[in-house]
Amino acid sequence: MALDSAKKAEIVAKFAKKPGDTGSTEVQV
Length: 29
Known about the structure:
Number of strands: 0
Order of helices and strands: HH
Radius of gyration: 9 Å
Strand content: under 5%
Structural class: mainly alpha
Shape: elongated
Distance between the termini: 10 Å
Largest sheet: none
């Protein structure tokens, strides 16, 4: 599943529990 950087950042920001949290289960799915 390829996502451009802007879209990925948007999704990460949406699902992250806190800013910079890329370790959340939702983010990794």
